[in-house]
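Entry 14. Ran structure prediction on the chain below.
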Amino acid sequence: MPHISIHTFALYLALLFSALVSAVIGLSQFAGMDYLAGALVPLSVVAVLAWALYAGLRHLAQRDDKNPLVSGLGPEGIMLQRATASALGRAIDSEAGRHFAAGEVHFQGGDYEAAAAAYRNSFDSEESLAADLNLAAALLSIADFQGAREALTMGYTQAQRQRSREYEAAFLLNMGALHARQGKLVDALGAYREAQRHHELLGGGRGLGDALVNTGQAQAHLGRGEAALESGERALAVYEETGSEPGRAAALGCMGYAHSCRDEFPEALEYFQQALAIHKELDNALGQGHVLTHMGNVRFKEEDYEGALEAYARASKLHGAARDALGEASAMVNMGNVHFRQGELDTAQENYDEAFRIHERAGNVMGQARALTNIGSLLARQRRVESALDTLQRARGFYLEVGDDSRGLQSVEKLIARLEAEVGGAES
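Output, structure tokens:
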């Protein structure tokens, strides 16, 4: 059975019911069967609805053609940019086009590993900025930092060679996201600001809002709360001007995060509630999950452990529904941290173990490293030194596998050194 697109189906439906309306009118007039006129009402309604559906879908398709780059929330609530099929530069029925379209389906479904494989297959003899950009976004979503860096570096070099400022900005934005994911926040901030400069030269728009949101989040994490709030407010104004509701939610979330980092908890929760309401209206499970995680962090800081656990549990469920393994496992780790703080170490380890299993199933090496770091810290707390060392050595191996030199690796190595010194001291 041949595949039929939804807008084609809508067209067929509209034509079918329009034909039926015409047929009923003709029969009733020819045969004097006035009672047939009663059938016109439901048939006409369906026909009108079908034509409206078709027109709406065509409008969306045309809009996508005019917007080859799209933005959305990525892992840990960081804004990422991707290319649409119209940006590929090749016919969608070509071999490269089919693989690219398959990548889009996998990406939207949360199967980032399959998406990455499809995007790789969309490369052909021609250079493809679109494929590089989307490949990097998919690899970032499974914490394949080395692969993402290679795709971003290659794509950015191509964009510079082709003098495509729009793509340069997109690659810079995603490169900043890579730095942020690795804890290199100063480098991330530099990349975001450069992306911001490009978008300002391009005349602003949604991309400028994305750069400002990410800039604000990095500033907040670095303790620059006032600057973070200013970035969030600028982003909100940009998104309101462009009519982007997902962007508005992201900007409000950024402002909430800025207040949270300044320990201004009531203000933080107010902004998070506004962002959550928009994500709920948009039926965006991923966005809701990110906001609820932030709200859980606020409750944790307030020592409202019951409220924190409730928020994290909701976040984990929403991330699971969105097939966001990283977000689901992150929420699970946060739940473990609450139980750890309360001295409920067995429950905490269950949460950490579950987070590790989620990352393992998803093939997320970095996630496995971070989960093992938590487990190793817990074992050290229990004075199970040998088990802690074995676990932390495994974590160290995973960090090295992905080429990570962030604070995660540094903290693991410090903990290993401390435990080894304790073992050495005990033996002497």
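The two ends are 76 Å apart (CA to CA). Will compare against last week's run tomorrow.
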